[in-house]
Write a structure and sequence with these properties.
The radius of gyration is 26 Å and the shape is elongated. The chain is an all-alpha fold and about 270 residues long. About 60% of the residues lie in helices and about 5% in strands. The chain folds into 2 domains: about 170 residues, Chitosanase, subunit A, domain 1; about 55 residues, no CATH class. It contains 12 helices and 4 strands, in the order αββααααααααββααα.
């Protein structure tokens, strides 16, 4: 309904999302302009690495947002203000959650996130400002339940407040106020429920990591944390060397007393 809001929404979104980051508490992993490595693999390059995410251009990010978030939520058909609130929520927490919340606040079944004629018809009968408030209230309540709230909560709270204020001005037919300074350290994290942790096993004696369990994510982590990876490798090598030295000591002990059971003598 208000196509001008798309450019405004994208500009404000990118200001919040910031540049490249790989925060250990962020379930999204390597992320740039708010595009996680999993999204980049889904939409652009199936075998993308952390380096590919780091090299992403802002125009590439805008194209992803327009097609897979704004258009996917039919934001061009939503009232001004509601479009920005739903779009930003979809980027931060997934279009599935954002679309379902929109349907729920309109009193519709939330068994799907699809924005269809039924949703648009319900919106005609509702005050856009009330819809914006309801969506933002639900969003903030959801974020506060996440275990990563202590890490990212301050930034998320400011973001939702800014989105609410700008969306309400859009809904009233006014241009939103200039974007305030956004505190990004270095990025606000993805407000999504973390996926179940993938089983990881470290074989200290062999100095190896269970690569079959971690898959490509392991190499993405290595690419983004070269110094930490080198330190872990050094510790693993030292552990292997110490273990082999201990085995040698035990075998020399056994050879010195033929015919006796092998009872290892641990070093003092």
């Amino acid at each position: 309904m208000a196509n001008w809001t798309c450019d405004e929404a994208l500009a404000r979104l990118l200001a919040h999302e910031g540049g490249y980051s790989d925060h250990p508490s962020d379930p999204g992993g390597p992320t740039k302009y708010g595009i996680t490595i999993s999204d980049y693999r889904r939409y652009v390059k199936p075998n993308a690495t952390a380096a590919d995410v780091r090299a992403m251009t802002v125009e590439e990010a805008k194209a992803i947002y327009r097609r897979h978030y704004w258009d996917a939520l039919c934001c061009d058909d939503l009232p001004a203000g509601v479009d920005y609130a739903v779009f930003d929520y979809g980027v931060n927490s997934g279009i599935g959650r954002s679309g379902r919340v929109l349907r729920r606040v309109l009193g519709l079944p939330d068994d799907t996130h699809i924005v269809n004629a039924t949703v648009l018809g319900a919106l005609v009968r509702r005050d856009p400002k009330a819809v914006v408030d309801a969506v933002c209230d639900e969003r903030l309540a959801f974020l506060r339940r996440l275990k990563t709230w202590p890490v990212f909560g301050r930034g998320w709270e400011r973001r939702v407040a800014e989105v609410r204020a700008a969306s309400l001005r859009m809904a009233a037919g006014r241009a939103p106020a200039p974007l305030p300074d956004i505190e990004i350290a270095p990025a606000a994290g993805k407000g999504v429920a973390p996926a179940p942790a993938v089983a990881k096993r470290a074989v200290v004696g062999a100095g190896a990591v269970g690569l079959a369990a971690t898959g490509g994510a392991f190499w993405d982590w290595v690419a983004a944390h070269p110094w930490e990876a080198a330190a872990i490798a050094c510790v693993a090598v030292m552990a292997v060397g110490g273990f082999l030295a201990l085995i040698g000591r035990w075998r020399r002990q056994e050879a010195a007393i033929p015919g006796t059971p092998f009872v290892p003598e641990l070093p003092a």
